[in-house]
Design a protein that fits this description.
mainly alpha; 2 domains
Length: 202
């Protein structure tokens, strides 16, 4: 920008000097000085504007980071709340196993999201494997935990799709029912052992 301005000023000076002769040289120098000051002032104002735009950009970046952080925290809080609420209802017998079956078709549709990533191919393959095992009621407790963890990740990454949340609900119910069954069997076993011990003492 300044290279162009310098050439322009030099050209103007040469023209004015040629036209005005020696008497007009003083006027030309005065004009050149005035123009120089004006261009300096303009350059200074442009620098101020650039600085203001940089400050505005920084504020927008800070605001975006703040909003992203808040959204992430809200999504995490909502996901945790949903898991707790569904697990509570399931263990209390409010959510029956047949409700899990209702969600199977919806949860299966989530697999179409695999083309959009950002879960790895290995994670999608594992999610599919665990989903199919859940349909056959073959999941272990550890696998149920893993299934819910992957479903939670799908919900976080694809929250705009209702199927993602349905998969998350399905995985939560599946895990809750499995743990409920595990603790009921453990309690039953404990009662049988106590009964056996009681019979042995009498």
């Amino acid at each position: 920008m300044w290279g162009v301005l310098e050439v322009s000023v030099e050209l103007i000076l040469n023209l004015l000097a040629a036209i005005g002769g020696l008497g007009g040289l003083t006027t030309v120098i005065g004009i050149a000085y005035w123009l120089g000051r004006k261009f300096t002032e303009i350059d200074y104002r442009f620098r101020l504007i650039d600085e203001r735009f940089e400050q505005i950009d920084k504020r927008f970046d800070d605001l975006k980071n703040y909003i992203d952080s808040r959204v992430e925290r809200l999504a995490t809080a909502f996901t945790n709340y949903q898991e707790f609420f569904i697990e509570f209802l399931t263990t209390e017998g409010v959510v029956k196993e047949r409700y899990r079956d209702v969600l199977i078709k919806e949860a299966r549709r989530t697999m179409r999201l695999a083309v959009a990533n950002p879960l790895s191919k290995e994670e999608w393959a594992r999610l599919k494997e665990l989903f199919e095992k859940s349909e056959r009621n073959e999941l272990t407790l550890e696998e149920a935990d893993e299934f819910l963890e992957l479903a939670r990740k799908v919900a976080w990454e694809y929250g705009e799709y209702s199927e993602a949340w349905k998969l998350h609900i399905y995985a939560t119910i599946t895990r809750a029912l499995l743990y409920k069954k595990y603790y009921e069997e453990k309690q039953k076993q404990t009662q049988q052992e106590q009964s056996t011990q009681s019979s042995a003492h009498s």
